[in-house]
Amino acid sequence: MTTTATRPPAPLPEQRDRSILTRLQHLLHAQATIGPAVVLLVAVIVFALLSDRFLTPGNISLILQQVAVVGTLAVGQTIVILTAGIDLSCGAIMVLTSIVMAKVAAGTGLPGLPALLLGFAVGTLCGLLNGVLVTRLKLPPFIVTLGTLNVFFAVNLWYSGSATIRGTDMPKLLLWTGQTFNIAGTRITYGSIMLVVLVAAMAFVLKNTAWGRHVYSTGDDLEASRLSGIRTARVLLSVYATAGLIYALAAWTLIGRIASASPQAGQTDNLDSITAVVIGGTSLFGGRGAVVGSLIGALIVGVFRNGLALAGVDVLWQTMAVGVLIIVAVSLDQWIRKVKA
Amino acid sequence: MSRRAFGLTAAAVLALSAAACGGGGSSGSTTLVGLVTKTDTNPFFVKMKEGAQQAASSSGATVQSFAGKQDGDNQSQVDAIENLIASGAKGILITPSDSKAIVPSVDKARAAGLLVIALDTPLEPASAADATFATDNYKAGLLIGQWAKAKFAANGKQPKIAMLDLNPNQVSVDVQRDQGFLEGFGVDVKDKNKIGDEADPRIVGHDVTNGDPSGGRTAMENLLQKDPGVNLVYTINEPAAAGAYEALKAAGKEKDVVIVSVDGGCPGVNNVKAGVIGATSQQYPLKMAQLGVEAVTKFAKDGSKPQNTDTGVTLITDQPAQGVESKDSAFGLQNCWG
Amino acid sequence: MTTPVLQATGLVKRYGKVTALAGADLELLPGEILAVIGDNGAGKSSLIKALSGAVVPDEGQILVDGEPVSFSSPLDARRAGIETVHQSLAVSPSLDIAANLFLGRERRRKGVLGSVFRMLDRQGMREEARRQLDALGIMTIQNPGQAVETLSGGQRQAVAVARAAAFGSRVVIMDEPTAALGVRESRAVLDLVLQVRDRGLPVILISHNMPHVFEVADRIHIQRLGRRKAVVDPKSVSMSDAVAIMTGAMEPPEAA
């Protein structure tokens, strides 16, 4: 029987001479959120210089309110994308949920809390449907959610009759997310607070629980996860269902913001949530990213929109800016992934 | 060919043609009318569809409806027209998403003998359709502009105008309402076909809303942030106006700011009654659809083509202004849609 | 006669018309390194998949410590104490070394934080990972908090082996551990294989690389045409003879 003493340990790998660029690449690799955070900081500085009405507490609170709906959607979208999936139906689930909550309450006189919980249940079930189709039929998430997007949207139109439900017909609880409270002289909506709490909670869960790790590893390498004993089908199901619940939270925030439940709302939110996630540094290939990044991504888009409007720039350039941001974000992600030992 | 062979062939051809004609006449059962709208989510188009179907059942026609997926989706409308030509429709009623790009398909339909009527939005050139039944969107804007001008002349305030448009694409309905409003208010619009080229200092800015309440709120917030003194808001439609109102309410300014809009949908007119919207131009999608179906059935019967028809626009407000004709919200509610 | 730690008798596995295993046998004795060699199509991977629970055989029996078992998933095999280092390594590149070591069997914090909030004991796992790496003499990996994708091929292999050694209580199966590695890194991995055996865990080593096989194996199981053709002693049979038996060019010597 041989012992370790007779064989010398393998020599260390050569220390590589690292250039600034390579160092940056490694840094971003370790912490994917730094890139977007820097972009946000730079954008805030630039717009503050362009307009003295930009960097006021009131305006900052406004921007947070403006991104609250998409930001909430983006949290759900983030966990789906972390599993190397994508959810094109998030906006449709949100709108359907908002209509169900509002219509049931306005029509049957159901009080706020049960109506809200019913909405949450509907959102979770819609997400679960996505999860079942992805895991059982083994279809690509892009295709599945493209299909369910249309299904949920059609159900939404049918159930609502294309009619908007007014806030005045709804119980107060449904509108709670739009109410504000005073902090340090500025008004902040409960919906914005809910978003921040949600991001913190999800970040905690992803970092500190086994489920969180399984989400990352399932997206990073599905086969390796399976071989390691992770029940990947269960992980995926739970991710899509949780995302559905989060979209229902976004519905609540939406009702608070527009003081109504409109079946025509949220048409662009599907793509906007994906934009926020991508700009925030989460990789579309799965296994890499953070929910804080998605919040930053949503804020970046909101800051650009608000900042450009204050600076009097034509709306055309807002659209251009978002497009450029996406391309930069994805290219950056590709570069970061190339890190070698 | 010998005389006999020629005679036999001629007889066969005649017999076949007779059979074909006879078959065409009787096998068609009812007149097929195609309705192609921009989307099927906007209540405006939902009402149009209902109106078409009502008119169809009373005049013995059938309506087949199609819609694009969103504003600007030209391809779905192209496909719809081809479908209708193949199905043997007698006429097509269309609200074009892209007034220019749809023209080749319209030409195809007309060449195949179908009657094509543009509803709500004219084609470019307007003569590409057999007729246009539409709201004069420019007039719709003009009316609310004139009303706002009179209102501000009466209260003597210095106007600060926020313009809430549809989207960056500068589609005709967006441009016409925006420019009509500005002209009615007394602003030099420079190029009537372009939003945003004005230099009048009374305009605080333009932003886009996507025609929905969420976009309306965000756009209003941003313009309000740019200049908190905004006291007049033009909105592309009533859902955007509802969103703008929420933004004003959150800033505590809803009493100081006047909102004007276009559409005349029932929720919108209710908002006029509630004081959320100061004045709105009401249009009549049901009427457009009804007239359209009637025109197609008439064309199928005797081949006569209709004339361009302005389906009318009425200013609805509970605060009538000097020199601008209007009707009140009660009238609006009787004639509203959605 | 010692009870084999792991034994397979008469395993049969068919995939449609193809018969991968045609009545295969195997015995793994305590404290040994058993190399499994065979040409392509001999049924090596199917044999290993059956033993590691990745595949359910159509016929035949598997015994652990003399007791019959049936594995319906890789988890069942793991629970029986059989750990497998797959050819693909089955590591999640973006996660760190400690996370990979405990992948699928994460440790939670003690008390309320662990049971109610289900918080992971990240510090504890990292320390344990460091201990496991040290125990196997893996000096080249400095920081268990490093992401696996920043490691070289050999280092990743070392992590996969450390994982198997840490959790394996009965058997460690290694599938082509040196196949993708250069000379120096193969050296290090072979050392690890010996380390594992010296800790008391018997090893089944599948390999194409004859010199490596002859260097570490105590016995060599030669698989041919879905069956065990022979088990030879590397000290008494030459490399070329072993290859010849494997390809059918030579008949095996009489069993001892």
Strand-helix topology:
The complex is a heterotrimer of chains A (341), B (338) and C (256).
Chain A: H1 20-30, H2 34-50, H3 57-82, H4 90-108, H5 112-136, H6 141-160, E1 165-166, E2 180-183, E3 186-189, H7 190-208, H8 210-220, H9 222-227, H10 232-258, E4 260-261, H11 269-279, H12 291-310, H13 315-337
Antiparallel strand pairs in A: 1-4, 2-3
Chain B: H1 3-27, E1 31-37, H2 43-59, E2 61-67, H3 74-87, E3 91-94, H4 103-111, E4 115-119, E5 131-134, H5 137-155, E6 161-165, H6 172-185, E7 203-208, H7 213-226, E8 232-235, H8 238-250, E9 258-263, H9 266-273, E10 279-283, H10 285-302, E11 309-310, E12 313-317, H11 329-334
Parallel strand pairs in B: 1-2, 1-3, 3-4, 4-5, 5-11, 6-7, 6-8, 8-9, 9-10
Antiparallel strand pairs in B: 10-12
Helix pairs in contact in B: 2-10, 3-4, 5-6, 7-8
Chain C: E1 6-15, E2 18-28, E3 33-38, H1 44-52, E4 59-64, E5 67-69, H2 74-79, E6 82-85, H3 97-101, H4 111-115, H5 122-135, H6 153-167, E7 171-175, H7 183-198, E8 203-206, H8 210-216, E9 219-224, E10 227-232, H9 239-247
Parallel strand pairs in C: 3-8, 3-9, 6-7, 7-8
Antiparallel strand pairs in C: 1-2, 1-4, 4-5, 9-10
Helix pairs in contact in C: 6-7
